[in-house]
Amino acid sequence: MISMVHDYWRAFLYSDGYHFTGVAITLWLLAVSIGLGFCLSVPLAVARVSSNRFISAPVWLYTYVFRGTPLYVQLLIIYSGLYSLEAVRGQPLLNEFFKDGMHCTLLAFTLNTCAYTTEIFAGSIKSMAYGEIEAARAFGMSRFTQYRRIILPSSLRRALPYYSNEVILMLHATTVAFTATVPDILKIARDANSATYLSFQAFGIAALLYLVISFALVALFRQAERRWLAYLQPQSPATR
Amino acid sequence: MFLQGYGPALLAGTLQTIQLALLSLLVSFVLGLIGAGAKLSSNRIVSGIATGYTTLIRGVPDLVLMLLIFFSMQIWLNDLTDWLNVDDININPFFAGVLTIGFIYGAYFTETFRGAFLAVPRGQIEAGTAFGMTRSQIFRRILFPQMMRFALPGIGNNWQVLVKATALVSIIGLADVVKAAEDAGKGTLQLFLFTMIAAGIYLAITTVSNFVLIWLERRYSMGVRKAQL
After folding, report:
1. Interface contact A154, partner B, CB < 8 A
2. ipTM metric
């Protein structure tokens, strides 16, 4: 155990001497996919709850397909499937993009988490209290202003507990990245395992690192909930 | 030729995946019931162990746990057989997969069942006691059927996640549908086609389970009054 920590701690945390590895890569994967997924999912969620079938149905199909198939299979399709197509390899730009494991991983992760996040936000928009929307309409707000001032601030806040769950699940899902040669925490653990045959120690360290990141995220989201969901907390007269 | 001769392999892989998912569901279901019982127990040590189990398992990615358990189990078994001076036993990857996935999702089921047990009104259990039922009778006739009603949405969720997690077992060398699709894709140089087929098979499994879950939900909510909106 000690010797493994001594030999691999740098690779597990941030670098194998040549590239970024380990925790740094895992956090990078998480931050990029969650960030892009969030930006894409807000307009998609608005489209998902649209009363126009032609707008909501494609979004429903997208989330249904991406939530109904494993992320690992999605990554396989994007990383080895698409790149095996002549049409993709023939185009210099596409070839450049899909050749790189990191790009494919980020694309697959973003599309996957965006599908789940869209459903979370759409559900939360649907559960808006109708009085609030009617009040906004009574004030003469346009559709856009309603969303900007009333619907989105309220529904994104109420979605926070479910969203935090999704972020933790996404952290756990980043572990498939090593199948596309991305050097995340698990890739280092596998390298350490095949070099030393100390399986329990190698994967144990990885498990511990993921556990620490999970707990840190949980603590972070608890702070966020305390700040943005304070108005929903039950209050007793004594503490006021 | 059906899918260039890879049809039977894909079919076998699909069956393997379904078997794996169903058996893991069974293991995790039982573990979940035990875990929920332990978590609700008044014995501090028992509930502490159960809390540790759910917290640790749910904080670590399933793939890491799978690799951890799968590889270390084999090494420990080798040590044991060496120590006992008997021949090495190779762990069957299928059963290792079932046990590992069952063990992991047992933690999720524990949380689901715990919440569901708490949702059954206390008076129901007291009424059972008043009728002179034994504890197992109360569990079988009163607690379990009503608990299932509250647990069903959670069970459905866990099942969908569990099915998708079975895709990971190809990484520890099991011949499931993903492995079959990859082999077929490499053999025919049509990786895109075959990985898409694998995705389609998973989509079919989740769609079918959706229908089953809707049916189950209707069955277990028999006699529940719904508010008319």
Report:
1. no
2. 0.85
- Report the CATH architecture of B2-220: Orthogonal Bundle (1.10)
| Residue A133 contacts residue A151 (beta carbons within 8 Å) | yes
Distant-in-sequence, close-in-space partners of B85: CB < 8 Å, separation ≥ 6: none
Give pLDDT tens digits along chain A (240 positions): 777 777 777 777 777 778 788 888 899 999 999 999 999 999 999 999 988 899 999 999 999 999 999 999 999 999 888 888 877 777 888 887 888 888 899 999 999 999 999 999 999 998 888 888 899 999 999 989 999 999 999 999 989 888 998 999 999 999 999 888 888 888 888 888 888 878 888 888 889 999 999 999 999 998 998 888 887 777 666 654
CATH number at residue A214: 1.10.3720.10
Domain that holds residue A225: 2-239
Q: Please judge whether B62 and A172 are an interchain contact, meaning their C-beta atoms are less than 8 angstroms apart.
A: yes
Number of domains in chain A: 1
- Chain A from 157 to 186: CB within 8 A of any B CB: 171-176, 179, 186
Domain segments of chain B as ranges? 2-220
Query: In chain B, whose CA is at the least distance from the CA of A71?
Result: B164
Which region holds residue B173: left if phi is over 0, alpha if psi is between -120 and 50, else beta?
Answer: left
**Number of Cβ pairs < 8 A linking chain A and chain B:** 112
- Residues in B touching A81 (Cβ below 8 Å): 185, 191-193, 195-196
Å from A237 to nearest chain B CA?
27
Residues B102, A171, A96, A43, Cα dihedral to 10°: 110
Cα dist. A192→A203, B20, B109, B114 in Å? 9, 29, 33, 38
